[in-house]
Specification:
alpha/beta, 12 helices, 2 domains, seven-stranded mixed beta sheet, four-stranded antiparallel beta sheet, Aspartate Aminotransferase, domain 1
């Protein structure tokens, strides 16, 4: 393993964004490899929270319209900060609600079933909450049997052509992850969108594992809608307010779940019982925005505007590339399966490895200061994040993994996940 330390040091010396690690709070002797579950706190995020708290302290209710960051417009302001990360126009991106609520909101608004066109394509590998939300919409329409799941050939990845093969005149909508949350496979969003639109099908994506990790061009690709959380690669903090994109061409279709913050801001406080929808993405807001849960994003997103998503992606690929190279060279004897696709176009920001004692391995790594992520039934996700992980972090993570495999430490831990995994 020692030779890989020199490689890691060389890569760190060549790293043009390595200094951003100092922007984040990282514990001593800790190798945090779980940024695709919960990103770390940055000093800028902390500062923006304190600034918003100070506005509350000094301005009281006038904080809604006064100060440097008026709360009344904060959802839209943060949406503008995220627009560049997904290749979208201002006015089509919003910080609002939770990811699951945004799925309900977007699907309920854009799903327009007819007698012959009513099915929704999802995939069998998707995160459960996405499926729950789509199924709930279909149930409300009396179309409980309309969910059409794209199947995986290997249990880990999806084939673009298999998904396209399901697109026929009976399909009204496609809703897929941009990156599969277990394997880290990137789906070909551009090709899938093109194929869907050739058949007159609405298509949307869950960007939870891709925003802040890879570039997107949603407007140019013609994607109809997208949802995402902001607490993973965007480092917005636990439970931070989610994001929503709806293509400007759909803004004339009024949001299904209506609430007073979706009203035209000029008439909102007229308190008329006739809903006057905002003309842009703002209409997708429902209730009063969660200001304190958005505040960290004001600072966290500044870092992305400084660095640029292209540089983040470049380093991310190099980090996971080093990880795959070391795993291939040093771990053949341990019964570890490397699940994540190898190609740069197909690999997201984390690496998934499989082992029959994955839960025990995860616990053993944590006992040694490495923070990975267990995924049932037998997988460990390792996510080196470009903004705050170094190449030496990758080396030490794998060095410790090799040590616990060599001495069998992982066998001393129970091979069962915790309540939260």
């Amino acid at each position: 393993m020692e030779k890989w330390l020199e490689t890691a040091k060389q890569y760190d010396a060549e790293d043009h964004i390595g200094n951003y690690k100092n922007e984040f709070y990282i514990g001593e002797n800790l190798y945090y490899m779980d940024g695709n579950s919960l990103g770390l706190m940055s000093r800028r995020a902390e500062a923006s929270v304190l600034d918003v708290l100070d506005d509350w302290k000094t301005l009281g209710i006038d904080g809604w319209t006064e100060g440097e960051r008026p709360w009344f417009y904060m959802s839209e302001r943060i949406g503008e900060l995220m627009a560049g990360l997904i290749g979208a126009d201002k006015g089509s991106v919003l910080a609002a609600n939770s990811t699951t609520v945004n799925i309900h909101q977007a699907v309920r608004t854009l799903y327009r079933p007819t007698g012959s066109r009513y099915k929704v394509i999802v995939d069998e590998l998707n995160f459960p909450s996405d499926i729950y939300a789509v199924q709930a919409v279909l149930d409300d329409y009396g179309r409980g049997d309309a969910l059409l799941k794209a199947e995986s050939r290997d249990g880990h990845t999806l084939e673009t052509e298999d998904i396209i093969g399901l697109m026929d005149e009976s399909v009204a909508m496609v809703f897929l992850p941009s990156i599969l949350y277990r394997s880290g496979q990137i789906l070909d969003m551009e090709r899938l969108t093109e194929a869907a639109h050739e058949k007159g099908i609405i298509i949307g994506f869950d960007l939870c594992h891709s925003i802040g990790a890879i570039p997107h061009e949603l407007k140019d690709w013609g994607v109809d809608f997208a949802v995402w959380c902001t607490y993973k690669h965007l480092n917005g903090g636990p439970g931070s307010v989610a994001g929503l994109y709806v293509h400007p061409g759909h803004h004339r279709k009024h949001a299904s779940l209506k609430g007073w913050f979706g009203n035209n801001k000029e008439t909102q406080f007229d308190m008329d019982h006739a809903f006057d929808p905002a003309e842009d993405i703002s209409q997708y807001q429902i209730g009063t925005p969660h200001i304190l849960s958005m505040a960290p994003l004001l600072g966290a997103l500044e870092i992305f505007n400084d660095v640029g998503i292209a540089k983040v992606r470049e380093k991310s690929l190099r980090l996971t590339g080093l990880m795959l190279e070391v795993l291939d060279a040093e771990f053949k004897e341990y019964g570890i399966e490397i699940v994540t696709p190898r190609g740069a176009d197909a690999r997201g920001g984390h690496v998934l490895i499989g082992h029959e004692h994955a839960a025990g391995i995860t616990a053993a790594l944590k006992s040694r200061g490495v923070i990975p992520d267990f995924r049932a039934p037998g997988y460990v996700r390792i996510a080196p994040v470009a903004l705050y992980n170094s190449f030496e972090d990758v080396y030490h993570t794998l060095r410790i993994l090799k040590e616990i495999m060599d001495d069998g430490t992982y066998k001393k831990f129970g091979n069962q996940r915790g309540v939260v995994a």
